[in-house]
Amino acid sequence: MFRPTLMRGVCLAAIAFSSSHALAQQALPTIDVGGARARSTSVPSRGPSPSAGHASQSDRSPGEAAQGAIAPRQSVFDRPPGQAVTTFDRNFVRYIEQSPQANLGDLLRFSPGVTVTPLGQGGESIISIRGSGNNPNARAIGRNFQLRDIVVLSDGFPVTIADGFTRTAILDPHAFAGVEVYRGASSALLGNYALFGGIDFKSFTGEQLDGLEIGSEGGSFGYVNNFVRGGKRIVDPAFGEFDVSIFGSDNRNSGYVQHQNSEAQTLNLLARWAPNAAQRFTLKYMFNNTFGDQNGPFSLLQYFTNPYQYGYGCPVGALISSPFCVARTAPRNGIWGIPNQPLSNPNAVRPQSYESLGIHGHTQQHLAGGRYEHDFGQGTTLRVQGTFNLREILAGAQPPPTGPFGAPVDLLGSTGNWDARVDLTHIGAIYGMPTLSYLGFIYNESKQSDMQSARIPYYYNDGARGAWAGQVAAHSRNWTLRARQEINFTDSLIGVVGFSTNWNNVWGDYRVNRYTTAGAWQPPTIFSISNAYWNTAPEASLTWRYNPEWQFRTRYAVGYSTPPFDSLTNTPSGAGPNNDLKAQTNMSAEVGAQWTPNETFTANVAVYNDWYRNENYAQTGPAPLLQSYVTNIPASIHRGVETQLDWRPFEGWRLYAAHTYASNFFTNFQDSLTGGYVYDRSGKRIPNVPAHTLTLRGGYDFPRGRLKGLGAYIDYVFRSASALDAYNIIWAPGYGVVNFNLHYNSDWGYGWAKTFSAYVEVRNIFDRTYMAASYPIPDTVTNGLITPAPLQWAAGNVFPGQPRAIVAGMKIKF
């Protein structure tokens, strides 16, 4: 069944591609939305999405095009029509760079539908698009601090590897001049794992930098980030055009939670060479070295009584039995143990602090890629791209594979990933209607090899590796075909049809070593997994520009994401085959509109309804093991409204807002609890998805005079209450955080310095204590009734947000 269907898709895509190639070739200009009153509306045009931004002046917002700009779209990934895309170009990034960029949240929170939670685990963050980060343990069980179900790119090179995981620590926000956020199901465009969407981080080019820039920012809790970025564009009549940019940073943080200090070094290189007008070569290299101590997550009791873990003697292992301290039960000898023994017994199984166990992570990642583009004639481009991504875990921690205690195990291993892409893009016409056609193929494969060991406490403050606990040897492979056809039916109406089909294989072996409570070695448990998944994703959209002020769009699309080896090898009783786990799918319908009455006001709105099948959900097995495992939710619905507003009412004043309303709930889910109880969760809200999130910024910059460049703004970040369990009886309280910023930007130059900027910001002025992130809490049953009280003592549920902090920084460009 697979081969005939796949071949029919290939034939249809080839026919569409060849038909457009056979007709007249002509450039395909863009629809200019906002700020285009002076230009004639009779120009044939294509449109960015209503929520896309294409600002070309520093005071323009995302969602607004430069007046009079008529540049052809050369790529289907560049603000695709019909798609809900938030585009931050260099000018908008300059606007938000007036504040500290400590993590990706400082960059991405200005997009509606997106939230980012920095975990303090060596620079990793949970990025959520339309609720994708609601269940991080299900998204990445066994690798809790990596991202899933969102495709992440950098300059078109995949950061997401073949098993669907993405490390965000390699993405320093200072390295990027722009971002495109694809919101909603995007598998027709981006392939496997684009269940909730995707993100493409755009590096600075040499032309944008045109020199050397040095920056430093630092402040409370030992935060220091020193960075340098430089680049140049050179045009030589004999050798063509060269454009090179490089970025490097050193980021250190003591952390606001006990035992969460981290440091990271990042490198980002982007080099382009165009020997002539028809050929382009691109080289990409990224590197990250991250070390970070780990602590938490915390129980609700620990969060409310001791949110930052500095009290109650928590760093001391001898006092860790306190219920106010985060602890993990582990054998003191690192091999085996006897429960309920006094601490003086070296063979006791006792609660241990994160400090005494030395739980930390040390990871290195290399990404190297190359791309070749060749233009045939005026409208056809061949692109060949290859990427190698190596992630090495020098030390790490994750839940144990099995056993009567919850001791984390230490990881040591690597994952190598190969990615090859070939595609054709053609700008042409069908019956006189301008078109953009695309046909592409992806092959990628990852190989994971990890060793797992127990932890021995009290060794050199970082713990030590104990007995060999297990070993993982896993492979993931994807074959993906993508096709897309964009057509300008009229000057103001654009239609898009596309699809992708993906064949995914996951296979490997898992070995679990076992020991008795007396320390005797037992024969290991070894099992194998070999699963295959086939998915397809159609897409269709219409974008209509009613007039220069109004644009409307409607879209239907499908997303899919296959489960990783980690989720296929965890069961309620510990390590074991979970072969029945299905791929997640999302059928999404949305409408959107953009209104730009003048150059000072832009408003975007998107309304979506997504029908999910087999969404991944993390559950906890019965006592005493309490193992985390992943199951499928047969049916659920995610719906919401995303709003974006940018208003400059008077010269120097600016108000920006990004608001999201989300209603994510189960429609078919039988929740299995301990004791054999099963409850119907239909109609209940999916945990960890707040109904409302808001980023609001209002400020003023002196536009002229002696104080030109001096400005200030106030930020307000709001998140409403959200359920913490599937029964919706425990809720995380909502919160609002206020930040105040004072900044100065000078373009006058001074001696050898071209520009200078500085800023100081007080974050969380009112020192609110709030829950920044959480895992779903498993419900408990007492005498046949679901009771919330025992959940207050459950371990591992929430992370606190940052208390009041002061951060200052400066940048000098030479």
Structural overview:
By secondary structure, the protein is mainly beta. It contains 8 helices and 42 strands. The chain has a 22-stranded antiparallel β-barrel. The protein has a 5-stranded mixed β-sheet with strand order 1-6-7-4-5. Strands 13-15-14 form a 3-stranded mixed β-sheet. A hairpin with an 8-residue loop joins strand 32 and strand 33. It is globular. Residues 1-72 and 138-144 have low confidence and may be disordered.
List keywords for this structure.
814 residues; mainly beta; five-stranded mixed sheet; 8 helices
Topology record:
Elements: H1 2-22, E1 84-88, H2 90-96, H3 105-108, E2 114-121, E3 124-129, H4 136-139, E4 151-154, E5 157-158, E6 176-183, H5 187-190, E7 197-203, H6 206-209, E8 211-219, E9 223-236, E10 240-253, E11 262-276, E12 279-293, H7 300-305, E13 328-331, E14 338-339, E15 348-352, H8 354-357, E16 360-376, E17 380-398, E18 409-430, E19 433-456, E20 464-488, E21 493-515, E22 521-545, E23 550-561, E24 570-571, E25 574-575, E26 584-598, E27 601-620, E28 628-647, E29 653-668, E30 670-672, E31 678-680, E32 692-701, E33 710-719, E34 722-723, E35 731-732, E36 735-746, E37 755-763, E38 771-774, E39 781-782, E40 785-786, E41 798-800, E42 805-813
Parallel strand pairs: 4-7, 14-15
Antiparallel strand pairs: 1-6, 2-3, 4-5, 6-7, 8-9, 8-42, 9-10, 10-11, 11-12, 12-16, 13-15, 16-17, 17-18, 18-19, 19-20, 20-21, 21-22, 22-23, 23-26, 24-25, 26-27, 27-28, 28-29, 29-32, 30-31, 32-33, 33-36, 34-35, 36-37, 37-42, 38-41, 39-40
